[in-house]
Automatic annotation (TrEMBL):
EC number(s) given by UniProt: 4.1.99.3
Hydrolase keyword on record: no
Protein name (Swiss-Prot/TrEMBL): Deoxyribodipyrimidine photo-lyase
Keyword Transit peptide: no
Source species of the chain: Blastococcus goldschmidtiae
Length: 453
């Protein structure tokens, strides 16, 4: 028999349970048709960096498949049944998609396939969303107890080697959409081999310092694997298997970050509406700013011209690398919501437009966490101070100087407060667009009001 392997967020050949399921269903004499479908409802709104990275990952995957990858464009509920009929496929294999759109789409594809089964094997997560629950079977609302139960649940060993697959060649492809020109934006190299190389380098050279390094944006302290995990160029199972037997603090911490990724996917699985709606609905009535002045402030934020160096560095990193360090994501998000009084959904949208690792679960819930509307257990309203955060996490100003050339000549002790420099704010760099202490109070007052009903 012939089977179809429909690639989505699993653009790799190793540690790929659905690939092995497609091979085994095809049997020793059968072959497997590997296909990717450009679906306008997902691909269109992706933002240029992600579209470009995805196209590059597909090129790498096709090379790893010796040119066998079939590209098709259109509604998967029409494309897959058509292709299954064309190649006489007896089953279609996928890694489960647990996001709101993916679930609806897969149900529609399953129906449209009729007698040809859609077989879901594995997911992009260590533990498939929905599997870890409290003792009474309800979903976890906060991270720490989830992470404990998640570790107790454990995960499978990596899937075996993809040897023995007979990839069918010569099946017609549609032309891929044109690759966006990103100008000066620098993306990481795409594909499974690049992902594995990036992992090996991090594991060997930087993992031991991760506990510290993860909080210093001026050093290359994190793994930078997020775009690869997003598109499944590698699976997190591969990483934790590689770390087995190394219970160091750094390894524990790194595994915890992978648990955050699983946690947010779990939250989205249980509450798909949380991609847009507040997890804490009582905060729905927070007042936000609008009008021309508010819009000008948002533009200053978007372009990295707020006059707060760590915020500007972060927003310029977003435009320059389609990536922002995690600590700085929290700082810039807090600034938009709590200093500029904009709704978190607006910042989340902007991030999704520009991030190469933009991921609905991690991004929307990361924003909700910072906005205080999400899965945060903290009983108080957290407002990041961009100046003290900058001094604490970028003490020598290396991160700011990298992204804000106007401040390169400043002594480190003035970098996060350029208005204290002996010569004043360097030419070309803006004055702070707001008074942080004042805006913080405005935010706290609005919070108190909405809490009081
Ligand atoms: P590392 O520190 O090396 O961590 C390893 C992996 O763990 C990451 O690749 C990621 O998959 C996962 N991880 C780490 N931290 C988190 C976290 N807080 N939440 C969920 N997963 C995590 N991450 C995304 O992948 N896509 C997003 O769109 C995204 N948007 C975010 C928006 C905001 C406002 C915030 C505060 C965080 C967001 N994150 C997002 C989480 C985090 O910032 C990135 O995963 C991380 O910076 C990626 O860099 P890294 O691979 O070097 O991380």
């Amino acid at each position: 028999p012939t089977t179809l392997l429909w690639f989505r967020r699993d653009l790799r050949l190793h540690d790929h349970p659905a690939l092995l399921a497609a091979r085994d269903a095809a049997g020793p004499e059968g072959d497997v048709v590997p296909v990717f479908v450009f679906d306008d409802r997902l691909y269109g709104p992706s933002g240029e960096p992600r579209r470009r990275f995805l196209l590059d990952c597909l090129t790498a995957l096709d090379a790893d498949l010796d040119g066998a990858l079939v590209l098709r464009s259109g509604d998967p509920a029409e494309v897959l049944p058509g292709l299954a009929w064309e190649v006489a496929a007896s089953s279609v294999h996928v890694s489960a998609d647990t996001g709101p759109y993916g679930r609806r789409r897969d149900d529609a594809v399953e129906q449209a396939l009729g007698d040809v089964p859609l077989v879901r094997t594995g997911s992009p997560y260590l533990v498939t969303p929905g599997r870890v629950t409290t003792r009474t079977g309800t979903p976890f609302q906060v991270f720490s107890p989830f992470a404990r139960a998640w570790r107790e649940h454990g995960w499978r060993a990596p899937a075996g080697s993809p040897d023995g697959v007979r990839w069918r060649t010569g099946v017609r492809s549609d032309a891929p959409p044109p690759a966006p020109d990103l100008g000066d934006v620098v993306l990481p190299p795409a594909g499974e081999q690049a992902a594995l190389a990036a992992w090996a380098q991090f594991r060997d050279e930087r993992l031991s310092g991760y506990d510290e390094g993860r909080n210093t944006p001026g050093t290359n302290g994190t793994s930078r694997l997020s775009p690869y995990l997003k598109y499944g160029c590698l699976h997190p199972r591969t990483l934790v298997a590689d770390l087995a037997g190394e219970p160091t603090e750094a390894v524990r911490r790194y595994t915890d970050e992978l648990a955050w990724r699983d946690f947010y996917a779990d939250v989205l699985w249980h509450r798909p509406e949380s991609a847009r709606e507040y997890l804490k609905p009582e905060l729905q009535g927070m007042g936000y700013d609008s009008g021309p002045d508010a819009e000008a402030l948002v533009r200053a934020w978007e372009t990295g011209r707020t006059g707060f160096p760590i915020v500007d560095a972060g927003m310029r990193q977003l435009l320059g690398e389609a990536y922002v360090h995690n600590r700085v994501r929290m700082i810039v998000a807090s600034f938009l919501v709590k200093d500029l009084h904009q709704e978190w959904t607006r910042g989340a949208r902007y991030f999704m437009q520009h991030l190469v690792d933009g991921d609905l679960a991690s991004n929307q819930h990361g924003w909700q966490w910072v906005a205080g509307t999400g899965t945060d257990a903290s009983p108080y309203y957290r407002v990041f101070n961009p100046i003290t955060q900058g001094k604490k996490f970028d003490p020598d100003g290396a991160y700011v100087k990298r992204w804000v050339p106007e401040l390169r000549d400043l002594d480190p002790k003035h970098v996060h407060e350029p208005w204290t420099a002996p010569g004043g704010i360097p030419a070309g760099y803006p004055e702070p667009v707001v008074d942080h202490a004042h805006e913080r109070q405005v935010s706290l007052d609005r919070y108190a009001r909405v809490r009081a009903g």
